[in-house]
Amino acid sequence: MIGFIVPLAYLIATGLYIFSLHWMNDPKTARHSVFAGVSAMLLAVAATWIEPNVVHHLWIILGIVAAIAVGVPLARVPLTAVPQRTALSHAFGGAAAGLVGAAYYYLWWSKTPEHLTTFRTTALIAENILGFLTLSGSLMAAGKLQELKWIPQRPLTYRGQNVINIGLLVAAALIGIWVILHPTTLLAAKLFPVVIGLALLFGVLLIVPIGGADMPTVIAILNSYAGLSAAALGFVVDNKLLVTAGALDGSSGFILAIIMCRAMNRSFANVMFGAFGQVQQAKQLEPGKVYKPETIEGAAQVLEQANLVIIIPGYGMAVAQAQHKVRDLYDQLKKRGITVKFAIHPVAGRMPGHMNVLLAEADIPYTDLVESSEINPDMPQCDVALVVGANDVVNPAARHDRTSPIYGMPIVEADKAKTIYAIKRSTRPGFAGIDNELYFSDRTWMLFGDAKAIIGDLVKQLSDSGGIH
Amino acid sequence: MRRRATSLSLALLGWTFLWAALAWAQGTGEASGGTPPSDYWSMVFVFVLATFIGLGVIRRVSRLLHTPLMSLTNAISAIAVIESISITGSDYPTVIRLLGVVAVFASMANIVSGFLITDRMVRMFKTRDRQ
User: How crowded is the C-beta side of A346, counted as CA atoms within 13 Å?
Assistant: First the structure.
């Protein structure tokens, strides 16, 4: 009977996973997703646990208890820390798949070498390389996002970097092929950890040249790798549930990475091996170009007169934790009957969808969060475009300046608005090391300072002057 | 629309049962315990088809929800937990089971935190002002 229940449970779990992903197509049904996912997972775990070969229970329970102790606090991090939490969980996913693969290899090597068929060993090697490079790469990415002191934040490049990286991967693959051809020899058992070590090293070196603006793409790619390693583990142990769940995760990360690349008009290879932001030299500020500062009072007056205000948030809003103040500003403007929309660029922030989650946390209705390509046609009618901590995604140089490193990138066309206010911490150029000509436009005024403080002042000014309600 | 979705799910469920029964009928002939010989091609077919389903489904995911999508798929890909449980619970050498228990911890941590934070995030998406 148990031979019937277990595969059936796995099948139902597979179906539930697909529904879980399907329900993410609309925020209204998104909570069903979590329900379906949790049920599928419970079903799969229960079905595995009742299998007759599972005879020791204590260690499993200990592992689960420890996981709950770590997992619950990890789920309560502030939303600005979600990118590093996600990177960390990719590391966990890669580690789990890799460790199980290694355990099976040594189990079969010592007990039942006939299990080490060419197909299985190939899947094992592929799975270990993917799993362990995801582990070390994601840890590096999480460290960079958390801004740990001992991890270089700026992209680090050196001569021959790509040759070394690809050479490492080729070396790991060659040793892996030798293991695949002679899986049951003593030397193979010794070379297996070497493959793992090379994969770990490759993962670290892969992330070293990656800068903050590329993090959304890289996190998506690591997501894809974690899924693919789970799928490969499914090949190793003949488990179709692992294959399907892994394939779903792999394709999800893949699609997200493609969306991110398209949003930056760059290729996969360019993101992984291009070392954006380091190669291009910062262009010097042309003489005669000066910032035009604006006072809070002046900005508040113009905002009050507007019909349509479009707010363009960027990573600076997340850093300043300004999303709740932005909500207050949104309230103040709405009270005056002004239409307020948010223009969300796909790569704004440090991971896909980062800005949406932050603004949703601040209770801003998601119907007012509009993707940049959809809101751009409304920009000429926009009275005030308020740029909050965004920089490269509003740089009009992307449209016409062929020498600009961001040339061709689809942007939020803030420069077409009637008036532009840009909140900026300092006069320093943005991530790409290039000046933003938007700031020198005739219609742009700058509000220098911390985004949270400035928006707070704007709100105060508006609530004092308004007197409505 | 809703009725169509319900009948569709029922049809899928029936289909699932049919194949499960067939597989069971074939599988009972094989000796239990150990790993049965694998059918590589069917694994590959499953992988390819699942990838296509994944691509089709994920393409329709709302762009608003890309961050929760990532934490959800993270939790889902922690399905490696079932193999970790299998290793840790079996009568295998201690070293193997130790690797297993670390994997149980890593994947279970992903499952717990992944689903919890996904739920926390999707609850934040509201249409109207705070109630």
Answer: 21
What contacts A203, CB < 8 A, 6 or more positions away? A132, A133, A134, A135, A136, A137, A138, A140
Q: How far apart are CA A77 and CA A145, in angstroms?
A: 14
pLDDT at position A96: 94
Is the minimum CB–CB distance between A235 and chain B shorter than 8 Å? yes
Mean pLDDT across A324-339? 92
Q: Smallest Cβ distance to A360: which of B33, B108, B124?
A: B124
Which residues does A48 contact at the CB level (< 8 Å), separation at least 6? A6, A54, B82, B85, B86
B41 interfacial to chain A (CB closer than 8 Å): no
Beta bridge partners of A387: A312, A422
| Ramachandran area for residue A433 (φ above 0: left; ψ -120 to 50: alpha; else beta) | left
pLDDT (mean) for A396-418: 85
**Considering the entire predicted model, what is its pTM?**
0.85
CB atoms within 10 A of CB A43: 18
Distance in angstroms (rounded) separating the CA atoms of residues A102 and A121 = 11
Q: What is the DSSP letter of A293?
A: B
Give the separation between CA A210 and CA A223, rounded to whole angstroms.
Answer: 16
What are the sequence ranges of the domains in chain B? 61-125
How far is residue A244's CA from residue A246's CA, in Å, rounded to a whole number?
5
Encode pLDDT of B7-56 as tens digits: 545 655 665 565 555 455 444 433 334 444 557 778 888 988 999 999 89
Per-residue confidence (pLDDT) for residue A400, from 0 to 100: 84
Q: Is the dihedral of CA A248, A249, A254, A256 positive or negative?
A: positive
Structure-model confidence comparison of residues A431 and A149, the more confident one: A149
* A371 neighbourhood in chain B, CB within 8 Å: 63
Cα Rg of chain B (Å, integer): 20
Nearest Cα of chain B lies from the Cα of A443 at a distance, in angstroms, of 31
Among A25, A34, A233, the residue with its CB nearest the CB of B61 is: A25
**Segment 58-87 of chain B within 8 Å of chain A by CB:** 58-87
Burial group, residue A396, by CB count within 10 angstroms (0-12, 13-18, 19+): middle
Rounded Cα distance, A331 and A460, in Å: 12
- Whether residue B91 and residue A104 make contact (CB cut-off 8 A), yes or no, is no
How many Cβ atoms from other residues are within 10 Å of residue B15's Cβ?
12
- For an interface test with B, the pick among A51, A64, A89 (most B C-beta atoms closer than 10 Å) comes out as A89
Between residues B112 and B128, the one the model is more confident about: B112
CA distances from A293 to A290, A301, A382, A386 (A): 9, 15, 21, 14
Question: Quick check: A213 pLDDT over 90?
Answer: no
Report the mean per-residue pLDDT for chain B. Answer: 78
